[in-house]
Amino acid sequence: MKKLINAPADVVPEMLRGFALANPALMLLGDGVVIRTDAGQLKAAGQVALISGGGAGHEPAHAGYVGRGMLTAAVAGDVFSSPSADAVLTAIRAVGGPAGVLLIVKNYTGDRLNFGLAAEIARGEGIPAEVVVVADDAALADSDENAGRRGLAGTVLVHKIAGAAAEAGQPLDAVARLARAAAGSVATMGVALSGCTVPAAGKPGLDLGPDEIEWGLGIHGEPGVERGPIPTADEIVDRLLGRLSADLDLAGGDRVVLLVNNLGGTPAMELGIIAHRAVDHLAARGIVVERLWVGTFLTALEMAGCSLSVARVSDQALALLDAPSQTVAWPAAHLGRVSSHPETRPAPSKPRELKPAVDESLWRSVAVVCNALIAVEQQLTDLDQLVGDGDLGISLARGAQAVLAAKSDYDGTDHASTLRGIAATIRRTVGGTSGPLYAALVLRTAAALAASHSWPEAFEQGVDAVAELGGAELGDRTMLDALIPAAASLRTGVLADAVVAARKGTDETAGIQARRGRSSYLGDRALGTVDPGAEAVVIWLDALATEKAPEQVS
After folding, report:
1. Residue 517 clears pLDDT 70, i.e. is over it
2. CA distances from residue 246 to 250, 251, 307, 308 in whole angstroms, order as listed
């Protein structure tokens, strides 16, 4: 177990104290209770108080939703364990007044029992209390064989709707009615790519293989309803939304809001891919997505995966979701609005110009280089992961594929014209440092050919362009350690000699401490591994020499 913790027993109180220190609008009481600092004023003003909570480990829930327009207090138990009835009662007594308290509870047995008992005690003390249970898990059907549908990320939407109603001064019965309607209109389903580790347990509660995904799980690291091979992101979204749409009986013309929730360990990049497909999927079915929120709302510690929550909305519910709020975790109101123009549409293209076809002899050489780089994508990626950022093989293969696909776009008037087109493709498609360096190599080579230099002379000038642009030289542990010896050897006109020289220069990089590039941050740790950029040069030069042998370069 690798976690930034002290003792497992201290995780929750230390986490809550740090959270409260960073948020001056909140105050930490004992027993895991976080309340608004203005709770006393709200009680005196007759505002209904909202309390939610549950086990810790779901951050930013639940303390992240304490603030104006949402919760008045949150109660955290141990990780994935319900808070005690006494802890809930502490929160009720701190924020509850004559206007009453609404408890929003996820449908887990411990939460229902402890929050329900606290509400019963509070009523006996003269504090009106209502309980709303959220059971939005569409993966489970209500059955005598289980404890019923679990409460998941859709609970956050209930917080927002009920919180806005309370902030507007509505009475307890009206706030409770709106909360129950919200809970009944939302459905959620999630998938996990990994398990999560409860600090006190020390090992993941869910053991997934490298190619497995868990469907329909809860938020406590427990197994879901099905395990299977991981499909594409689009296939995941389509299946989740198919289930959610059936659960809510959605049809064309229905208005919904969509919550794309990170279960804890999912990069924002992947959430964006999920959101993109989800909106397109619903739109294709004629379902109107009124609001979209993408982010980390209710997690299962560090679990990799996501959940989708869909809620049918009316004008009234939408207005409450849009109402101002001020909390740590809920985004500003304007961020939920779905953009009607996420992409900049290109201007109409000009009619395609007819250009002379690319010389086939030249193109055979270009294709050999490109296919060689595509074939070694994984090899270069693995090598680059040892001493760099791991993207070299991917970047070069992507550029090679783009060059091959663009053959008909290139001007075949002469070799220089074709190379200029190839340089432009590389510039557009290859990221990182490799893109501009290879584009400079090809572009300067093209300029030298246009000035009537021979191929060996032109190639040497291209290598000079790489050195000038990158600010490196021979011995800096870069692609130049292969390019410079190769260019010098190519003056003889034999590619095989250039490959031998490039191989020797590349092998020597294993004993060089890098002064340029990502490897320079590793110091001695990069020693013993050849430079990936130089290795790539050897690979495509060798492929080119094999294709041309025994032909001489002239």
Report:
1. no
2. 7, 9, 16, 14
